Amino acid sequence: MDKLNMNNSIDILRMQSDIMKKIHAFKMFKIEGMDAVVKFFPKLKPFILANAHKNLEDLECEMIAQLDAIRMEVV
Questions:
Q1: Handedness of CA 41, 45, 50, 53 (dihedral sign)
Q2: Which stretches within the chain are classed as H helix?
Q3: Nearest Cα to 56, choosing from 11, 26, 28?
């Protein structure tokens, strides 16, 4: 694997980690409320507020679609 491909793989893993963190924070918001999100994921409060009207399944689909789009651009 050359350096460019390795850097792209690392970037994809970081993005995947960020997406999973957002999904987890959103699940926490739906179950425990904003106070729990602010306690554990304070930087994600704007993301949660912007998406609060969505249901979990829709948000997960959107986030996975974003990741798939990024993967396609890299390949």
A1: positive
A2: 3-32, 34-40, 45-51, 56-74
A3: 26
Q: What tens digit of pLDDT does each residue of 30-66 get?
A: 999 999 999 999 999 999 999 999 999 999 999 999 8
Assessment of whether the complete model's pTM goes beyond 0.70:
yes
44 close to 22: Cβ distance less than 8 angstroms: yes
Sequence-ordered list of residues with C-beta below 8 angstroms from that of 21, at least 6 positions apart, any chain:
41, 44
CA-based nearest residue to 68, from 27, 9, 12 = 12
